[in-house]
Design brief:
about 270 residues, Lambda Exonuclease, Chain A
Length: about 270
């Protein structure tokens, strides 16, 4: 199976996929951070929903935050304990970033909540508005094509299914990064096959900025997805060495830099 996550690696550098085929055990600090933060965000949202339903009447932002954040510190502590043996040198930085991201997103939710409480919407209704029905970390695959993914979240609104990718990086000024868009297109393809429904739109949730950006899944994006998939397929199953552009900055940040013969950072 080709996983959708490989597409992001391919867009970063095709050699990352080519080299990584034989080194799947290598995990970069950014990959670890992303995994921890996505896990934290999903659990955080469940706690927030549970605390939101109790709210009613007009409340200050601080009062709302106090209620929303009950049990959140204990949850963050449980994550710290679970990963304390992984990359200890970097864990303190990752956890501090995690705390700041959750604090920032809590404030955004509190502001939205206050506005709705002020006009008479209660906590139960606010949960339905801010957190639509969804599938979390939904595993999906197409055996005929040989493509698989674990989608961070699939939201369902009025019978329409929307794939959502949760990311820790900073978004571009306009739109989303192309690699993120191609992953959303891949999710759309898998979901249309799985649910027999059109999936014309997806979203990328950039946690650090609290922005949820729309990805329109048009014919051009679908063609790009197909191209990337075919290139990865040729690498894995036909041993085709990919063409790539040398970029010293990418090489510096790549977890395969020490074993990659093409790394310009070492040259």
């Amino acid at each position: 199976m080709i996983t959708v996550s490989l597409m992001k690696d391919y867009m970063y550098c095709p050699m990352k996929v080519y080299i990584g085929i034989d080194y799947t055990e290598i995990e970069s600090n950014s990959i670890l951070e992303g995994r921890i933060l996505r896990e934290a965000v999903i659990g955080f949202e469940e706690i927030i929903k549970r605390n939101l339903v109790r709210l009613k009447g007009k409340l200050t932002i601080n009062a709302i935050l106090e209620e929303l954040l009950k049990d959140v510190p204990d949850y963050v502590l449980s994550i710290i304990q679970r990963y304390e043996n992984d990359k200890n040198d970097e864990m303190s930085i990752i956890i501090e970033d995690l705390k700041e991201d959750l604090k920032f997103n809590s404030l955004l939710i509190a502001i939205k909540t206050q506005k709705m409480l002020d006009i008479g919407i209660n906590g139960f209704e606010i949960v339905d508005i801010l957190f639509p029905q969804s599938f979390i970390e939904f595993k999906i695959e197409n055996r005929d094509l040989g493509l698989a993914a674990k989608i961070d979240k699939i939201e369902i609104v009025d019978g329409v299914y929307y794939p959502i990718k949760i990311l820790t990086n900073i978004p571009p000024t306009k739109g989303v990064w192309q690699s993120d868009a191609i992953q959303i297109a891949a999710y759309s393809f898998l979901m249309e096959e799985e649910f027999n429904k059109k999936v014309p739109v997806g979203f990328v949730n950039y946690i650090k900025t609290g922005t949820k950006k729309t990805v329109l899944i048009n014919s051009m994006l679908k063609e790009k997805f197909e191209h990337v998939f075919n290139e990865i397929y040729s690498m894995i199953y036909e041993g085709k060495e990919p063409y790539f552009s040398k970029n010293i900055n990418k090489c510096r940040a790549c977890e395969f830099s020490e074993i990659c013969d093409y790394c310009v950072y070492k040259l």
